[in-house]
Fold each of these.
Amino acid sequence: MVIKATYEQLIDRIAKLAGLSVDEIERRVEAKRAKLSNLISKEGAAQVLAAELGISFDKQKYKINDLLLGMRKVQVIGKVLNIFPIRTYTRKGTESKVANIIIADETGNIRTVFWDTNHIAKIENGEIKVGVCVEIKKADVRGMDNKELHLGSMSEIELSDKTIENVITSRPSPDVKKISEISLNENVRVKAAVVQVFQPRFFNVCPECNMKATFEEGKYLCAKHGNVIPKERMLVNMVVDDGSDNIHAIGFNEIAEKIIGKIEENKDPQNFLIKKKELLGKEFFFSGRARKNMLFSRNEIVVNDLEEVNPENIIKEFEK
Ligand SMILES: [Zn+2]
């Protein structure tokens, strides 16, 4: 077991090594987090700060979610989720290989790139395969839109006997985007406040295929499955605003329930109004796909996940 240093211990250590006061380090950590829209944990921000101060944490293991662009010589343990075919490329007339794998832990996953033939050989000889845990040392975090872990000739990768439960297998969430900068048909993540919630709409779907079931002559009909006993579904439509612009955010079914509660509760308009009052002004991270609503000729996000922005962080932002 790796005993994770508590935040206080970490700060204390950085302060000592940097010859600065604990208060000063804490202030800089908070500034770093604010600059990164609080998308990083305090521990993660402290480690970035340490790296900037030239303090190395070779013994400190990072969680994947805490890796940040620009971090160098990091140490990570992850479970191999996927291995892509090894590619060859020619550089200065010499043919070289590059390998890409995805590793994951309980906080996230990351594309990991091997540039060294000795590391690539471990994939070729089957030592590194899907499902094993690997311990990586001295890798750099690079990338343009998405973070990647890069292993050069100075890096190390070994099999680890650790087991990691509940690894995050979904694609890493995209970085937060301003609503004014959203393009259509892209997966986006925005940090926005709810400014309007419309009365939810209810509809019926076929339990087999989830397609719309139409009500005809006292029966529900699915185009494919005929006469069915439908499942009731709910759609909630909100307007969210992040200061740059606003956009409609649509939630279906489980997501709608996560936003306003169970279908049955929302059949009562009074209950819905209570929910609505609670929601207005609340800030969330919304992830989903941006699309054009042809019917209303407006842009909207079909939400596939949302997470309330930690109120603690909002207070800190206001205090700035
Ligand atoms: Zn059907």
Amino acid sequence: MFTWGDSVVQVKNVDFLLTFKCPAQCQHCSYKAGPNRVGYIKPKEISRYLKELIKMHPLQSVWVHGGEPFLYFNYLKYIIKETKKLGIPRRGVITNSFWAKNEVIAKAKLEKLKNKGLKAITFSSDFFHQEFIPIEYVRNALKAAVALGLENIIVDSYFVDDVTTYNYFNQITKKNLELLEDIEELEFHRYPMGVEGRGADLTEYLNLKAELPSGNCPMPFWIDGDLKNPETIEIDCEGNITLCPGICIGNTNIQSLTKIIQNYDVDRHPILSLVSKEGPLGLLKLAKEQGFKQKQNFVNECHLCYELRKYLQQIYPYSLAPEYCY
Ligand code: SF4
């Protein structure tokens, strides 16, 4: 456990964003992943990160996502194998199922991961993913995961506006999900899409508020703890350590992961210090000082936060990374 000033950071969960490359190019993707992105986390970097973390932190889970982690299947297997060796109990992967052309192929792939120690798997299925990946592939992958008896089999779907809003996108998502509902032992998770990354270009379909959102930072749902003491960190293939897509607390090409966590102090982070005390509205003062003029309305706190960060990115490139998010 590290202490810095009066802050104590105990990392319990690590997400490896193995690559930002993806066969899909979803309209809501926070990281703007796609076929033209390059790079991945090399096995020796994975080993180094895990070695550093396990010494000082009570790691409970490692998830691998991206981008599409099955594009680097051998490295994905390596991460699962290493995390099992270290006794980290929860080991999972998030995928869009592009590799599951039929049930035989799907089962063969997942069996290899299960043999290395995979416990949980999340399949992305919604309007956005199914623009690129046939729903039959998702079904093949789900059936294979059930047949292999993986412990947690989850379907994550992102909805435009709210999960109950009636619109074209959500109707397609609902229809696709109905094609999966007969498969037993699945957990279905439904979320409103984030208004950031490519998702910030979909505001014409969203409910823009007349007044400025003035609430606190809600924290991404997958980050345990709070901004002062985050329990989940994300490590990407460019070395960025992020707490929310595009908000970086250090880069392992500049400083070791150990030092980044040891030195993390929310009050000294130029962006998070303001967001944690005043909510995203705190960033408005900073952006205005830099010449920002409000020309639009916002959907919610995170949309305001994202647009202000986008304006500030060139001024704080180290804290607002990876750059592609913007
Ligand atoms: S986008 Fe900003 S307000 Fe929303 S969870 Fe991330 S840091 Fe908090």
